[in-house]
Write a structure and sequence with these properties.
The chain is an alpha/beta fold. It is built from eight helices and five strands. Strands 2-1-3-4-5 form a five-stranded parallel sheet, sandwiched between helices. The structure holds flavin mononucleotide.
Amino acid sequence: MYVYVVFAHPSKQSFTHEVLDAFTRGLQDSGHTFEVGDLYEMGFQTDMDLAQYERETGGDPDAPVPEDVRLEQAKIDRADGLAFVYPVWWSDCPAKLKGWFDRVLTFGYAYDYAYADAYGEDGAHVTKIAVKKALVLCPAGHPVEHLEEIGVAESMRCVMLGDRLLGVGVKEAHMEILGGMVENDPTTRQRNLERAYQLGRAF
Ligand SMILES: Cc1cc2nc3c(=O)[nH]c(=O)nc-3n(C[C@H](O)[C@H](O)[C@H](O)COP(=O)(O)O)c2cc1C
């Protein structure tokens, strides 16, 4: 498969970057090809400006989108799979990645309410996204058990997988929270990196 890996962390010295390296090594070792979109390195514009807001709410699915958005959509179009690697910040993704979803999942591309048959039998929106599979990999300070117990893991799955991926046409999506990092325990660290590598291999 050809995988577009979206990376959202400001530091190349971060644990999240080590997860990116382990995951892409796994992809390579099983013969997948990929490109990485490092949103901070690209200086990807996070917030939707007035012009794009007016485009998104203007009711014209064919209205042109900003060039940086078009380039991201082209990367999605040539990918069989998508992967997202980011740290859990305040129970969600960093704003940089939230802005990527806000701006890249445009009206007429990721969804379109305008058609009479906009909702299929399964309730999915009309979409141009034909990605087979997505994987979300996110390191977290809290142990996974704690995030499950307080409902945050479920809320992350619901929003990231249900709404932002499966909800726009991705056929299959899975989230792996690489938790427990706040303990600074080398065993946890190694286990999480091994898991990231294996997920790359098994993609
Ligand atoms: C601004 C900020 C917010 C965070 N929020 C959470 C959180 O809500 N839940 C959690 O489990 N960990 C949280 N963390 C911890 C990170 O997810 C954790 O340290 C992760 O392993 C990323 O490490 P890295 O920055 O070295 O890549 C937060 C860290 C930062 C810097």
